[in-house]
Design a protein that fits this description.
This protein is mainly alpha-helical. The protein has a domain at about 65-150. The chain has helices spanning about 45-110, 115-150, and strands at about 1-5, 10-15, 20, 25-30. A two-stranded antiparallel ribbon has the order 1-4. Helix 1 (about 45-110) packs antiparallel against helix 2. The chain is rod-shaped and about 150 Å long.
Length: about 160
């Protein structure tokens, strides 16, 4: 190969006779190279780093699952407590008051002091309260099932 050296600006040199001339020369050269790979780091370090990253990822996944389960269990218990309070409202007075009101309206009708429409309206209110009570019972049962699912108790 060869290389022609030509500067981008006028650079003059002197000839053998002392005259100025631009410097432009051709240089013949031969090149070659050898490369040697020197092990600076052990090849297993990348695998070790990947294994450590996989271990950290697995630990984060376990942490996520634990937090998710804790949240589900806490939510299931909160739902159960709310359903129990609702059920206690029905059991501690609402149903008894509705039953007594219905009995009073029926007795008033039998004594001629009320109309049949009053009895039917009170019967409807009593049935609505009983439906609410059965809904509250179902909510308590569903919440108990959700707790069992959240903590991993097998189906019965």
């Amino acid at each position: 190969g060869y290389q022609r050296q030509d500067f981008g600006f006028n650079l003059n040199g002197l000839t053998a006779s002392g005259q100025a001339r631009p410097i432009q020369d051709v240089f013949h050269y031969f090149g070659g190279g050898v490369s040697i790979t020197l092990p600076v780091r052990n090849g297993n370090e990348g695998s070790i780093a990947a294994a450590r990253a996989a271990e950290r990822a697995a630990a984060r996944r376990v942490e996520f699952v634990v937090l998710t389960v804790q949240q589900e269990v806490a939510a299931a218990f909160a739902q159960y407590d709310a359903a129990q309070r609702s059920l206690q409202v029905y059991e501690r007075g609402v149903r008894d008051v509705a039953r007594r009101n219905l009995a009073v309206v029926r007795q008033a009708y039998q004594l001629g002091r009320g109309s049949l429409l009053d009895v039917v309206a009170e019967q409807r209110r009593y049935i609505e309260i009983e439906n609410g009570y059965t809904d509250a019972l179902k909510q308590v049962y569903d919440a108990a099932v959700d707790i069992e699912r959240a903590v991993g108790i097998a189906d019965r």
